[in-house]
Amino acid sequence: MGRRSAFTLLEVLISIALLGLILPALYQSVELLKDSNKHLFDYVEKAKKISKATEILYLDILSSDGNLSIKKDDFSRLCIEQTRNSLYELPSAKVCWIVMKKDHALLRVEGNGYLLPLRVDDRVEADLVMKDLEVFDVYHSMDKVLVLIQQAKKEPISFMVQGVTKPQKKKKMAAKKAVKKKRPPGNQETNGTKSPGKTPPPI
């Protein structure tokens, strides 16, 4: 049998037709793989942000002096009067974790000497932690702090910090009453003149 030198026109057309069927399927598979990788990357990034946020909150509480102010509303508002866990290289800072009404966004506010609501001249740093919060509750009992966090359509997060003792209330020092020392009675001065004696009756 003689060797074939080239493909026939029919074979070329069949190959092109098969390639036309295979390429769209390959392209679709590549696009699905890219979308899957993108979703996985986004999920990992969000998971990193959430784990980083919970780590910061954990360290804020653990490094605090135990003076925690918790205000209950639709969400808890946690204010730590003094913590050594500063993101802005402060020796100690006041940190508040609050949930905004808009988008139910969780914010971390760090500074010193400020009160809520903030004033224009307050020097603080506010960082957006996460949005679409459904649950943010904090409970402080004895030396334990329990934190519950849940975003919409996400698994809830909870953790407990132990060893956070509430600061003891300073005992009010009772003012010592000055003891008034009674002045010792002085010697009464006697008059040098003798009292006149009774004159004897006449005989």
Automatic annotation (TrEMBL):
The chain crosses the membrane at residues 7-27. Keywords: Membrane, Transmembrane, Transmembrane helix. Residues 168-203 are annotated as: Disordered. InterPro entries: N_methyl_site. Residues 168-184 have a biased composition (Basic residues). Residues 187-196 have a biased composition (Polar residues). The keyword Membrane applies. Pfam families: N_methyl. It comes from the Bacteria. This is Prepilin-type cleavage/methylation domain-containing protein.
